[in-house]
Amino acid sequence: MTDVNVILRYLLADHPEFSPQAAQFFEQVRNGAATALIPEGVLVECVYVLMKFYAVPRPEVAEKLSQVISYRGVVNPNREILLEALALLTRHAIDIVDAMVFVTAQHHGWTTFSFDQDIHKLERETDDSAG
């Protein structure tokens, strides 16, 4: 299982000791020589820390994390949902958890019960484009 700090050191290349270790590990993950379980909670925290603490622009966060999630050795049964949720970050001012709730509901044909207007706005846009 991969911790948030390992992903951050890899993406930011900001630590003289840990960043090279993370880069070496993720190079193996990229080509499938190693596996890395990246749970949803780790992805959520990465998005939050990159955007809020490091002020990385939303599209760059989505692009970089999508690349990592797409590596051959990354294990997550919800990979497609994670990638779609990250893609929503580039097109909408929605937080990652709301994006994941929306995409998960869409994938399963579920109705979303939420007081969050961002989710309802996405649902309306989806209904408009489908009809």
Automatic annotation (TrEMBL):
Gene3D superfamilies: 5'-nuclease. SUPFAM superfamilies: PIN domain-like. Residues 2-123 form the PIN domain. This is PIN domain-containing protein. It comes from Entotheonella factor.
